[in-house]
Specification:
Elements (H helix, E strand, L loop, with lengths): L8 H28 L5 H20 L3 E4 L4 E8 L2 E8 L7 E4 L8 E2 H5 L1
Antiparallel strand pairs: 1-2, 2-3, 3-4, 4-5
């Protein structure tokens, strides 16, 4: 992580090789929990929930935040033009291309390229 608890676009893109498998595992375990709620298989549910908690801790340790587990959206605290923002990446995207202001979400995201150019 960079000074002032911010992550550059370059660093965020390098982190994707670590983040992507974590997000994939989170989505899988979340789907398992969702499909099996009420089935009575509490051992499997407990194991999946423990994995979800561990994976969330891993994301937070990297300095990132899970915005949406179903869509696999991760936010990275950063700065764009001196403003504290959240870089926004969604599972399936090859690189971090968007950001949104703090307190906003993916619906408000903007292209980083438009700001940098």
């Amino acid at each position: 992580m960079e000074p002032n608890n911010t992550i550059s676009v370059e660093t965020a893109n390098k982190m994707l090789r670590l983040i992507t498998p974590i997000v994939l595992d989170l989505k899988e375990k979340w789907t398992t929990v969702d499909k099996n709620l009420g089935t009575g298989d509490y051992t499997m549910l407990q194991k999946s929930i423990k994995t979800i908690c561990r994976r969330l801790d891993e994301i937070e340790e990297l300095g990132c935040f899970l915005e949406d587990i179903d869509r696999g959206i991760i936010d990275f605290p950063s700065k764009v033009d001196g403003e504290r923002v959240m870089l926004c990446w969604m599972l399936g995207e090859e690189e971090v291309l968007h950001y949104h202001r703090r307190g906003e979400n993916i619906r408000h995201r903007l292209l980083i390229k438009q700001v940098v150019e």
